Amino acid sequence: MKRSIIQYRLAKYLLCCHSCYHVVVDLALLTTSLAMVAFPLSIGMMIIIALLLIALLLVLYAIYKHRHKHYVDITHLQSIQLDSGSLFSFFQPHLISMEEVGQRGYSSMLSLTQHMIGIQPICDSVMILWPPSFDCYNILLPNSLNIPEVILGVPGSVDIKLISLAMYASSRANECAYCTSHCCSFAVRRGVDPSILRNLLAEVSNNKKSNRNEDGSTTSSLSPKESAVIKLAYGLGTVPCSLTAETCNEVAKLFHPSQLEWLVAATSLFGMFNKVMDGLNIPLETSTYQETIDIMDANYTLGRAAAGMIEGESNAAKARRQPPPPTDDWTNIIAIMYHGLRPGSGAMWFERKMLRGIPTSAGECGGYLQERCGSSFSSVLHWIQHDRFRRAIVYVIGRNFVSDNLPLKLKVQVGLGYCDILQNAVVAGALKEVLTFVEKERAHHEKSIDVEALILKVGKALSYAPSRVTPEMVKSLHSSENVTPAMIVELVTFLAVLQTLHRITSFQIVQKECRPSSLSATLTAHISTKCGFHSSSSSHAAKPAQPGGLYLSPPVKTCWGKS
Protein backbone atom coordinates (compact mmCIF):
# COMPACT_ATOMS: atom_id res chain seq x y z
CA MET A 1 0.00 0.00 0.00
CA LYS A 2 2.76 2.43 0.98
CA ARG A 3 4.70 1.61 -2.18
CA SER A 4 1.62 2.34 -4.32
CA ILE A 5 1.18 5.75 -2.69
CA ILE A 6 4.83 6.65 -3.37
CA GLN A 7 4.48 5.53 -7.00
CA TYR A 8 1.29 7.58 -7.38
CA ARG A 9 2.91 10.74 -5.94
CA LEU A 10 5.97 10.30 -8.14
CA ALA A 11 3.82 9.89 -11.24
CA LYS A 12 1.80 12.97 -10.28
CA TYR A 13 4.99 14.99 -9.80
CA LEU A 14 6.41 13.95 -13.17
CA LEU A 15 3.08 14.70 -14.87
CA CYS A 16 3.07 18.16 -13.28
CA CYS A 17 6.63 18.88 -14.48
CA HIS A 18 5.74 17.60 -17.94
CA SER A 19 2.61 19.77 -18.02
CA CYS A 20 4.55 22.90 -16.90
CA TYR A 21 7.12 22.30 -19.63
CA HIS A 22 4.43 22.06 -22.28
CA VAL A 23 2.63 25.13 -20.95
CA VAL A 24 5.82 27.19 -21.34
CA VAL A 25 6.45 25.85 -24.82
CA ASP A 26 2.83 26.37 -25.90
CA LEU A 27 2.82 29.93 -24.59
CA ALA A 28 6.07 30.67 -26.43
CA LEU A 29 4.69 29.26 -29.70
CA LEU A 30 1.38 31.09 -29.25
CA THR A 31 3.13 34.39 -28.56
CA THR A 32 5.32 33.99 -31.63
CA SER A 33 2.34 33.08 -33.82
CA LEU A 34 0.30 36.07 -32.67
CA ALA A 35 3.26 38.38 -33.21
CA MET A 36 3.74 37.04 -36.73
CA VAL A 37 0.02 37.53 -37.57
CA ALA A 38 -0.34 40.96 -36.02
CA PHE A 39 2.99 42.34 -37.11
CA PRO A 40 4.48 41.02 -40.33
CA LEU A 41 8.15 40.45 -39.51
CA SER A 42 11.24 39.86 -41.51
CA ILE A 43 12.98 36.51 -41.32
CA GLY A 44 15.81 38.09 -39.37
CA MET A 45 13.44 39.43 -36.71
CA MET A 46 11.75 36.04 -36.43
CA ILE A 47 15.13 34.41 -35.85
CA ILE A 48 15.92 36.94 -33.12
CA ILE A 49 12.61 36.25 -31.37
CA ALA A 50 13.18 32.50 -31.60
CA LEU A 51 16.65 32.88 -30.09
CA LEU A 52 15.27 35.00 -27.26
CA LEU A 53 12.65 32.36 -26.51
CA ILE A 54 15.31 29.64 -26.48
CA ALA A 55 17.45 31.75 -24.13
CA LEU A 56 14.43 32.20 -21.85
CA LEU A 57 13.86 28.45 -21.73
CA LEU A 58 17.53 27.84 -20.92
CA VAL A 59 17.39 30.35 -18.06
CA LEU A 60 14.22 28.74 -16.69
CA TYR A 61 15.84 25.32 -16.84
CA ALA A 62 19.01 26.54 -15.07
CA ILE A 63 16.96 28.18 -12.30
CA TYR A 64 14.85 25.05 -11.89
CA LYS A 65 17.90 22.79 -11.74
CA HIS A 66 19.52 24.88 -8.98
CA ARG A 67 16.31 25.67 -7.08
CA HIS A 68 17.25 23.79 -3.90
CA LYS A 69 18.89 25.73 -1.08
CA HIS A 70 21.69 24.11 0.92
CA TYR A 71 22.47 25.35 4.42
CA VAL A 72 22.77 24.09 7.98
CA ASP A 73 19.54 24.37 9.93
CA ILE A 74 19.76 26.96 12.69
CA THR A 75 18.18 24.58 15.23
CA HIS A 76 21.01 22.11 14.65
CA LEU A 77 23.59 24.89 14.98
CA GLN A 78 22.20 26.01 18.30
CA SER A 79 22.22 22.47 19.67
CA ILE A 80 25.93 21.79 19.04
CA GLN A 81 28.01 21.36 22.19
CA LEU A 82 31.14 23.40 21.53
CA ASP A 83 34.56 23.58 23.15
CA SER A 84 34.52 25.88 26.18
CA GLY A 85 36.96 28.23 24.47
CA SER A 86 34.94 28.64 21.28
CA LEU A 87 33.76 32.19 20.73
CA PHE A 88 30.98 30.84 18.49
CA SER A 89 29.13 29.69 21.61
CA PHE A 90 28.61 33.37 22.47
CA PHE A 91 26.59 33.81 19.26
CA GLN A 92 24.67 30.52 19.26
CA PRO A 93 21.48 31.72 21.02
CA HIS A 94 21.32 34.78 18.74
CA LEU A 95 21.87 33.20 15.31
CA ILE A 96 19.58 34.37 12.52
CA SER A 97 18.11 31.77 10.19
CA MET A 98 18.88 31.77 6.47
CA GLU A 99 15.17 32.25 5.73
CA GLU A 100 15.17 35.50 7.68
CA VAL A 101 18.45 36.63 6.12
CA GLY A 102 16.88 36.10 2.68
CA GLN A 103 13.75 38.01 3.69
CA ARG A 104 15.92 41.00 4.63
CA GLY A 105 16.83 41.47 0.97
CA TYR A 106 19.83 39.16 0.65
CA SER A 107 18.20 36.21 -1.16
CA SER A 108 20.18 36.68 -4.39
CA MET A 109 23.42 37.15 -2.46
CA LEU A 110 22.81 33.88 -0.60
CA SER A 111 22.10 32.09 -3.87
CA LEU A 112 25.23 33.50 -5.49
CA THR A 113 27.37 32.25 -2.62
CA GLN A 114 25.80 28.81 -2.91
CA HIS A 115 26.63 28.67 -6.62
CA MET A 116 30.22 29.59 -5.76
CA ILE A 117 30.91 27.11 -2.93
CA GLY A 118 27.94 24.74 -2.92
CA ILE A 119 26.34 25.92 0.34
CA GLN A 120 25.02 29.01 2.07
CA PRO A 121 27.72 29.26 4.76
CA ILE A 122 27.16 29.41 8.51
CA CYS A 123 29.07 32.70 8.76
CA ASP A 124 26.07 34.51 7.20
CA SER A 125 23.95 33.76 10.29
CA VAL A 126 26.60 35.40 12.51
CA MET A 127 27.76 38.37 10.44
CA ILE A 128 24.17 39.58 10.00
CA LEU A 129 24.08 40.22 13.77
CA TRP A 130 25.90 43.46 12.89
CA PRO A 131 24.41 44.29 9.45
CA PRO A 132 27.30 46.50 8.21
CA SER A 133 29.56 43.44 8.50
CA PHE A 134 27.32 41.42 6.18
CA ASP A 135 26.96 44.35 3.78
CA CYS A 136 30.75 44.75 3.53
CA TYR A 137 31.09 41.00 2.93
CA ASN A 138 28.61 41.13 0.04
CA ILE A 139 30.11 44.27 -1.51
CA LEU A 140 33.75 43.24 -1.27
CA LEU A 141 33.26 39.71 -2.63
CA PRO A 142 32.19 40.45 -6.24
CA ASN A 143 34.23 43.64 -6.53
CA SER A 144 37.48 42.02 -5.37
CA LEU A 145 37.10 38.89 -7.49
CA ASN A 146 35.93 40.87 -10.55
CA ILE A 147 32.69 38.90 -10.87
CA PRO A 148 31.08 38.23 -13.34
CA GLU A 149 33.92 38.99 -15.79
CA VAL A 150 36.23 36.40 -14.25
CA ILE A 151 33.49 33.73 -14.28
CA LEU A 152 32.69 34.40 -17.94
CA GLY A 153 36.36 34.51 -18.93
CA VAL A 154 36.12 37.99 -20.47
CA PRO A 155 39.30 38.75 -22.45
CA GLY A 156 41.81 40.63 -20.30
CA SER A 157 40.51 39.24 -17.01
CA VAL A 158 42.61 36.87 -14.90
CA ASP A 159 42.08 33.13 -15.30
CA ILE A 160 39.58 32.06 -12.63
CA LYS A 161 41.85 29.11 -11.77
CA LEU A 162 44.66 31.51 -10.81
CA ILE A 163 42.24 33.58 -8.70
CA SER A 164 41.17 30.34 -6.98
CA LEU A 165 44.78 29.43 -6.20
CA ALA A 166 45.39 32.89 -4.71
CA MET A 167 42.35 32.51 -2.46
CA TYR A 168 43.37 29.02 -1.31
CA ALA A 169 47.07 29.78 -0.77
CA SER A 170 46.46 32.96 1.26
CA SER A 171 43.89 31.19 3.48
CA ARG A 172 46.25 28.26 4.01
CA ALA A 173 49.06 30.65 4.95
CA ASN A 174 46.81 32.48 7.44
CA GLU A 175 45.84 29.14 9.04
CA CYS A 176 42.12 29.74 8.61
CA ALA A 177 40.73 26.20 8.39
CA TYR A 178 37.22 27.40 7.50
CA CYS A 179 38.30 29.53 4.51
CA THR A 180 40.83 26.93 3.36
CA SER A 181 38.16 24.26 3.00
CA HIS A 182 35.71 26.59 1.25
CA CYS A 183 38.42 27.93 -1.07
CA CYS A 184 39.29 24.32 -1.91
CA SER A 185 35.65 23.74 -2.88
CA PHE A 186 35.61 26.98 -4.89
CA ALA A 187 38.80 26.06 -6.73
CA VAL A 188 37.71 22.53 -7.69
CA ARG A 189 34.37 23.88 -8.92
CA ARG A 190 36.29 26.30 -11.16
CA GLY A 191 38.35 23.45 -12.63
CA VAL A 192 41.58 23.53 -10.58
CA ASP A 193 43.40 20.18 -10.50
CA PRO A 194 43.01 18.75 -6.95
CA SER A 195 46.62 17.55 -7.01
CA ILE A 196 47.77 21.20 -7.07
CA LEU A 197 45.86 21.92 -3.87
CA ARG A 198 47.10 18.72 -2.25
CA ASN A 199 50.75 19.59 -2.95
CA LEU A 200 50.56 23.35 -2.39
CA LEU A 201 52.61 23.46 0.82
CA ALA A 202 55.32 21.37 -0.77
CA GLU A 203 55.41 23.81 -3.67
CA VAL A 204 55.79 26.75 -1.30
CA SER A 205 58.58 25.17 0.74
CA ASN A 206 60.55 23.67 -2.13
CA ASN A 207 60.26 26.20 -4.93
CA LYS A 208 63.70 27.69 -4.27
CA LYS A 209 65.61 24.44 -4.00
CA SER A 210 64.34 21.05 -5.10
CA ASN A 211 62.13 22.43 -7.86
CA ARG A 212 65.08 24.00 -9.71
CA ASN A 213 67.73 22.24 -11.74
CA GLU A 214 71.36 23.29 -11.97
CA ASP A 215 70.63 25.42 -15.04
CA GLY A 216 67.87 27.25 -13.15
CA SER A 217 64.98 25.55 -14.93
CA THR A 218 62.07 24.22 -12.89
CA THR A 219 60.88 20.66 -12.52
CA SER A 220 57.59 21.67 -10.87
CA SER A 221 54.39 20.27 -12.32
CA LEU A 222 52.91 23.76 -12.08
CA SER A 223 53.03 26.36 -14.81
CA PRO A 224 55.16 29.46 -14.13
CA LYS A 225 52.03 31.54 -13.53
CA GLU A 226 50.54 29.03 -11.09
CA SER A 227 53.77 28.83 -9.13
CA ALA A 228 54.15 32.63 -9.01
CA VAL A 229 50.56 33.17 -7.86
CA ILE A 230 50.92 30.61 -5.06
CA LYS A 231 54.10 32.27 -3.78
CA LEU A 232 52.54 35.75 -4.04
CA ALA A 233 49.35 34.81 -2.16
CA TYR A 234 51.10 32.67 0.45
CA GLY A 235 53.60 35.44 1.20
CA LEU A 236 50.84 38.02 1.63
CA GLY A 237 48.79 35.60 3.75
CA THR A 238 51.36 35.04 6.49
CA VAL A 239 51.55 37.25 9.59
CA PRO A 240 53.78 39.15 9.38
CA CYS A 241 54.02 39.33 5.59
CA SER A 242 56.74 37.11 4.11
CA LEU A 243 56.44 38.20 0.47
CA THR A 244 59.85 38.64 -1.16
CA ALA A 245 61.13 41.05 -3.78
CA GLU A 246 62.03 38.06 -5.95
CA THR A 247 58.38 36.98 -6.08
CA CYS A 248 57.29 40.56 -6.86
CA ASN A 249 59.68 40.65 -9.79
CA GLU A 250 58.45 37.27 -10.97
CA VAL A 251 54.76 38.19 -11.01
CA ALA A 252 55.51 41.54 -12.66
CA LYS A 253 57.09 39.73 -15.59
CA LEU A 254 54.23 37.24 -15.95
CA PHE A 255 51.17 39.48 -15.52
CA HIS A 256 49.95 42.80 -16.82
CA PRO A 257 49.65 45.36 -13.97
CA SER A 258 45.87 45.31 -14.34
CA GLN A 259 45.80 41.53 -13.87
CA LEU A 260 48.28 41.69 -11.01
CA GLU A 261 45.97 44.04 -9.15
CA TRP A 262 43.12 41.50 -9.33
CA LEU A 263 45.39 38.81 -7.88
CA VAL A 264 46.33 41.09 -4.98
CA ALA A 265 42.65 42.06 -4.62
CA ALA A 266 41.58 38.41 -4.30
CA THR A 267 44.28 37.80 -1.70
CA SER A 268 43.26 40.99 0.17
CA LEU A 269 39.61 39.95 0.12
CA PHE A 270 40.56 36.84 2.06
CA GLY A 271 42.48 39.02 4.46
CA MET A 272 39.03 40.06 5.62
CA PHE A 273 37.41 36.63 5.37
CA ASN A 274 40.27 34.82 7.14
CA LYS A 275 40.09 37.16 10.13
CA VAL A 276 36.28 37.07 10.33
CA MET A 277 35.93 33.29 10.10
CA ASP A 278 38.81 32.48 12.43
CA GLY A 279 38.04 35.32 14.84
CA LEU A 280 34.36 34.42 15.19
CA ASN A 281 35.26 30.71 15.41
CA ILE A 282 32.80 29.79 12.65
CA PRO A 283 32.43 25.97 12.61
CA LEU A 284 33.03 24.30 9.27
CA GLU A 285 30.00 22.65 7.68
CA THR A 286 30.14 18.85 7.72
CA SER A 287 29.27 18.52 4.03
CA THR A 288 32.07 20.89 3.01
CA TYR A 289 34.53 19.01 5.21
CA GLN A 290 33.52 15.64 3.73
CA GLU A 291 33.95 16.76 0.11
CA THR A 292 37.27 18.58 0.56
CA ILE A 293 39.26 16.81 3.30
CA ASP A 294 40.82 14.30 0.91
CA ILE A 295 41.75 17.02 -1.58
CA MET A 296 43.66 19.26 0.81
CA ASP A 297 47.19 18.57 2.00
CA ALA A 298 47.88 16.03 4.75
CA ASN A 299 48.94 18.79 7.18
CA TYR A 300 45.51 20.43 7.12
CA THR A 301 43.83 20.51 10.54
CA LEU A 302 40.52 21.98 11.63
CA GLY A 303 41.90 23.58 14.76
CA ARG A 304 39.69 24.70 17.63
CA ALA A 305 37.90 27.38 15.62
CA ALA A 306 36.42 25.36 12.74
CA ALA A 307 36.03 21.98 14.47
CA GLY A 308 32.71 22.66 16.23
CA MET A 309 30.34 20.78 13.95
CA ILE A 310 32.76 18.02 13.02
CA GLU A 311 33.61 17.20 16.63
CA GLY A 312 29.92 16.98 17.40
CA GLU A 313 29.38 14.29 14.78
CA SER A 314 29.69 10.56 15.34
CA ASN A 315 32.86 8.72 14.34
CA ALA A 316 31.00 7.25 11.36
CA ALA A 317 30.03 10.74 10.16
CA LYS A 318 33.60 11.97 10.58
CA ALA A 319 34.91 9.10 8.47
CA ARG A 320 32.23 9.50 5.80
CA ARG A 321 33.35 11.07 2.54
CA GLN A 322 31.50 12.75 -0.30
CA PRO A 323 32.60 13.02 -3.95
CA PRO A 324 34.73 16.06 -4.78
CA PRO A 325 32.78 19.20 -5.72
CA PRO A 326 31.56 19.16 -9.35
CA THR A 327 33.04 21.58 -11.86
CA ASP A 328 30.84 24.35 -13.24
CA ASP A 329 28.50 23.57 -16.10
CA TRP A 330 26.56 26.03 -18.23
CA THR A 331 23.53 25.93 -15.95
CA ASN A 332 25.56 27.10 -12.97
CA ILE A 333 27.02 30.01 -14.95
CA ILE A 334 23.55 31.03 -16.16
CA ALA A 335 22.21 30.84 -12.58
CA ILE A 336 25.06 33.06 -11.38
CA MET A 337 24.26 35.61 -14.07
CA TYR A 338 20.56 35.49 -13.20
CA HIS A 339 21.10 36.19 -9.51
CA GLY A 340 23.56 38.92 -10.41
CA LEU A 341 21.19 40.70 -12.82
CA ARG A 342 17.89 39.82 -11.13
CA PRO A 343 15.71 42.98 -11.15
CA GLY A 344 15.10 44.54 -7.77
CA SER A 345 17.13 42.14 -5.63
CA GLY A 346 20.12 40.94 -7.67
CA ALA A 347 23.76 41.55 -6.80
CA MET A 348 24.00 44.45 -9.27
CA TRP A 349 20.98 46.15 -7.70
CA PHE A 350 22.35 45.56 -4.21
CA GLU A 351 25.74 46.99 -5.18
CA ARG A 352 24.20 50.05 -6.79
CA LYS A 353 22.16 50.75 -3.65
CA MET A 354 25.07 50.26 -1.24
CA LEU A 355 27.63 52.25 -3.26
CA ARG A 356 25.35 55.20 -3.95
CA GLY A 357 27.29 58.35 -3.08
CA ILE A 358 30.73 56.69 -3.19
CA PRO A 359 32.98 58.65 -5.61
CA THR A 360 34.94 57.01 -8.41
CA SER A 361 38.29 58.76 -8.85
CA ALA A 362 41.18 58.22 -6.47
CA GLY A 363 41.34 61.89 -5.46
CA GLU A 364 37.62 62.14 -4.70
CA CYS A 365 37.71 58.88 -2.73
CA GLY A 366 40.56 60.24 -0.61
CA GLY A 367 38.63 63.42 0.10
CA TYR A 368 35.50 61.41 0.93
CA LEU A 369 37.35 59.35 3.57
CA GLN A 370 39.27 62.38 4.88
CA GLU A 371 36.01 64.15 5.63
CA ARG A 372 34.36 61.16 7.33
CA CYS A 373 37.24 59.34 8.99
CA GLY A 374 40.04 61.86 9.36
CA SER A 375 42.40 60.01 6.99
CA SER A 376 42.45 59.82 3.20
CA PHE A 377 44.04 56.33 3.31
CA SER A 378 46.12 57.48 0.35
CA SER A 379 48.73 54.78 1.04
CA VAL A 380 46.04 52.24 0.13
CA LEU A 381 44.08 54.00 -2.60
CA HIS A 382 46.86 55.47 -4.74
CA TRP A 383 47.89 52.02 -5.97
CA ILE A 384 44.39 50.80 -6.95
CA GLN A 385 43.63 51.20 -10.67
CA HIS A 386 40.19 49.61 -11.02
CA ASP A 387 37.27 51.82 -10.03
CA ARG A 388 35.05 49.00 -8.77
CA PHE A 389 37.71 47.66 -6.41
CA ARG A 390 38.57 51.16 -5.18
CA ARG A 391 34.93 52.05 -4.49
CA ALA A 392 34.39 48.77 -2.63
CA ILE A 393 37.43 49.45 -0.41
CA VAL A 394 36.21 53.00 0.27
CA TYR A 395 32.75 51.68 1.18
CA VAL A 396 34.18 49.10 3.57
CA ILE A 397 36.44 51.64 5.28
CA GLY A 398 33.59 54.14 5.59
CA ARG A 399 31.20 51.59 7.15
CA ASN A 400 33.73 50.38 9.72
CA PHE A 401 35.48 53.58 10.78
CA VAL A 402 32.42 54.80 12.66
CA SER A 403 31.10 54.64 16.21
CA ASP A 404 28.23 52.18 16.43
CA ASN A 405 27.98 49.58 19.19
CA LEU A 406 31.62 50.31 19.99
CA PRO A 407 33.24 53.77 20.08
CA LEU A 408 35.58 54.36 17.14
CA LYS A 409 38.36 55.45 19.48
CA LEU A 410 38.27 52.06 21.21
CA LYS A 411 38.34 50.19 17.89
CA VAL A 412 41.32 52.25 16.72
CA GLN A 413 43.18 51.49 19.96
CA VAL A 414 42.66 47.77 19.34
CA GLY A 415 43.68 48.28 15.71
CA LEU A 416 46.98 49.94 16.65
CA GLY A 417 47.90 46.90 18.72
CA TYR A 418 46.97 44.69 15.76
CA CYS A 419 49.26 46.72 13.48
CA ASP A 420 52.16 45.95 15.84
CA ILE A 421 51.49 42.23 15.33
CA LEU A 422 51.20 42.73 11.57
CA GLN A 423 54.39 44.84 11.62
CA ASN A 424 52.70 47.33 9.30
CA ALA A 425 53.45 50.94 10.19
CA VAL A 426 51.72 52.22 7.04
CA VAL A 427 48.25 51.13 8.21
CA ALA A 428 49.19 52.21 11.75
CA GLY A 429 49.94 55.69 10.41
CA ALA A 430 46.45 55.95 8.94
CA LEU A 431 44.95 54.78 12.24
CA LYS A 432 46.85 57.47 14.14
CA GLU A 433 45.40 60.08 11.79
CA VAL A 434 41.91 58.74 12.52
CA LEU A 435 42.59 58.74 16.26
CA THR A 436 43.72 62.39 16.14
CA PHE A 437 40.61 63.28 14.15
CA VAL A 438 38.32 61.54 16.64
CA GLU A 439 39.94 63.20 19.64
CA LYS A 440 39.71 66.67 18.09
CA GLU A 441 36.55 66.65 16.00
CA ARG A 442 34.35 63.85 17.30
CA ALA A 443 35.10 63.72 21.01
CA HIS A 444 31.62 64.93 21.92
CA HIS A 445 30.07 62.15 19.79
CA GLU A 446 32.09 59.35 21.36
CA LYS A 447 30.32 57.34 24.04
CA SER A 448 32.12 55.45 26.77
CA ILE A 449 31.24 51.88 27.64
CA ASP A 450 31.75 49.96 30.87
CA VAL A 451 33.53 47.01 29.28
CA GLU A 452 36.45 48.73 27.54
CA ALA A 453 39.04 46.67 29.43
CA LEU A 454 37.36 43.41 28.35
CA ILE A 455 37.04 44.58 24.74
CA LEU A 456 40.73 45.55 24.65
CA LYS A 457 41.69 42.16 26.09
CA VAL A 458 39.52 40.20 23.64
CA GLY A 459 40.65 42.43 20.78
CA LYS A 460 44.30 41.64 21.46
CA ALA A 461 43.57 37.90 21.49
CA LEU A 462 41.64 38.21 18.21
CA SER A 463 44.58 39.98 16.59
CA TYR A 464 46.62 36.79 16.31
CA ALA A 465 46.24 34.14 13.62
CA PRO A 466 44.90 31.73 14.71
CA SER A 467 42.86 33.55 17.37
CA ARG A 468 44.07 33.27 20.97
CA VAL A 469 40.74 33.82 22.71
CA THR A 470 40.76 31.74 25.90
CA PRO A 471 37.90 29.93 27.69
CA GLU A 472 38.18 32.52 30.48
CA MET A 473 37.56 35.34 27.99
CA VAL A 474 34.55 33.54 26.51
CA LYS A 475 33.18 32.99 30.01
CA SER A 476 33.61 36.69 30.76
CA LEU A 477 31.67 37.59 27.62
CA HIS A 478 28.84 35.24 28.59
CA SER A 479 28.64 36.65 32.11
CA SER A 480 28.79 40.29 31.04
CA GLU A 481 25.46 42.08 30.72
CA ASN A 482 26.91 44.91 28.66
CA VAL A 483 28.69 43.02 25.88
CA THR A 484 26.42 42.08 22.98
CA PRO A 485 27.11 39.73 20.04
CA ALA A 486 26.86 42.73 17.70
CA MET A 487 29.78 44.36 19.55
CA ILE A 488 32.06 41.38 18.98
CA VAL A 489 31.07 41.03 15.32
CA GLU A 490 31.78 44.74 14.87
CA LEU A 491 35.18 44.39 16.55
CA VAL A 492 36.21 41.35 14.49
CA THR A 493 35.03 43.00 11.26
CA PHE A 494 37.11 46.10 12.04
CA LEU A 495 40.21 43.95 12.51
CA ALA A 496 39.33 42.07 9.32
CA VAL A 497 39.23 45.32 7.34
CA LEU A 498 42.67 46.21 8.71
CA GLN A 499 44.00 42.85 7.50
CA THR A 500 42.64 43.60 4.03
CA LEU A 501 44.43 46.97 4.05
CA HIS A 502 47.54 45.25 5.41
CA ARG A 503 47.75 42.90 2.43
CA ILE A 504 47.28 45.72 -0.08
CA THR A 505 49.95 47.91 1.50
CA SER A 506 52.30 44.97 2.10
CA PHE A 507 52.44 44.31 -1.62
CA GLN A 508 53.20 47.99 -2.24
CA ILE A 509 55.97 48.01 0.38
CA VAL A 510 57.73 45.00 -1.11
CA GLN A 511 57.11 46.39 -4.58
CA LYS A 512 59.05 49.54 -3.64
CA GLU A 513 61.96 47.32 -2.68
CA CYS A 514 61.98 46.11 -6.30
CA ARG A 515 62.14 49.56 -7.83
CA PRO A 516 65.73 49.24 -9.05
CA SER A 517 64.52 46.32 -11.17
CA SER A 518 62.29 46.19 -14.22
CA LEU A 519 59.22 46.20 -11.99
CA SER A 520 59.47 49.93 -11.46
CA ALA A 521 59.53 50.83 -15.13
CA THR A 522 56.43 48.81 -15.98
CA LEU A 523 54.21 48.98 -12.92
CA THR A 524 54.94 52.49 -11.64
CA ALA A 525 54.41 54.03 -15.09
CA HIS A 526 51.08 52.27 -15.42
CA ILE A 527 49.92 53.41 -11.97
CA SER A 528 51.05 56.98 -12.68
CA THR A 529 48.95 57.06 -15.83
CA LYS A 530 45.86 55.61 -14.12
CA CYS A 531 45.89 57.42 -10.80
CA GLY A 532 48.08 60.52 -11.20
CA PHE A 533 50.60 59.09 -8.74
CA HIS A 534 54.13 60.54 -8.96
CA SER A 535 57.07 59.35 -6.90
CA SER A 536 60.39 61.03 -6.33
CA SER A 537 63.52 59.11 -7.25
CA SER A 538 66.77 59.38 -5.38
CA SER A 539 65.28 59.81 -1.91
CA HIS A 540 63.47 56.46 -2.09
CA ALA A 541 66.31 54.01 -2.31
CA ALA A 542 65.57 50.49 -1.10
CA LYS A 543 65.96 49.99 2.65
CA PRO A 544 66.87 46.86 4.56
CA ALA A 545 63.91 44.58 5.15
CA GLN A 546 62.18 44.48 8.52
CA PRO A 547 61.18 41.18 10.09
CA GLY A 548 58.74 39.40 7.82
CA GLY A 549 60.28 40.79 4.65
CA LEU A 550 58.79 44.32 4.94
CA TYR A 551 60.36 47.71 5.20
CA LEU A 552 58.92 51.17 5.53
CA SER A 553 59.88 53.72 2.90
CA PRO A 554 60.01 57.49 3.47
CA PRO A 555 56.74 59.37 2.90
CA VAL A 556 55.78 59.27 -0.77
CA LYS A 557 54.31 62.31 -2.52
CA THR A 558 50.87 61.45 -3.86
CA CYS A 559 48.00 63.40 -5.37
CA TRP A 560 46.75 64.05 -1.79
CA GLY A 561 50.07 64.92 -0.16
CA LYS A 562 52.14 62.55 1.95
CA SER A 563 51.18 58.94 2.51
Major pleated sheet: 2 strands, antiparallel
Overall 3D geometry?
globular
* Broad structural category: mainly alpha
Number of alpha- plus pi-helical segments: 30
Task: Please describe what this structure looks like.
The N and C termini lie far apart (78 Å). A hairpin with a 2-residue loop joins strand 1 (557-558) and strand 2. It is built from 30 helices and 2 strands. It has helices spanning 2-38, 43-65, 74-79, 88-91, 98-117, 123-127, 131-145, 149-152, 160-173, 177-189, 194-198, 200-206, 224-237, 245-254, 257-279, 286-292, 303-306, 308-312, 315-319, 330-341, 347-354, 362-373, 378-381, 387-400, 408-422, 425-441, 452-462, 471-479, 485-513, 518-531, and strands at residues 557-558, 561-562. With 563 residues, it is mostly helical. It has a two-stranded antiparallel ribbon with strand order 1-2. Helices cover 65% and strands 1% of the residues.
What characteristics describe this protein?
mainly alpha, 563 residues, disordered C terminus, disordered N terminus
Brief digest:
The chain is 65% helix and 1% strand. With 563 residues, the protein is an all-alpha fold.
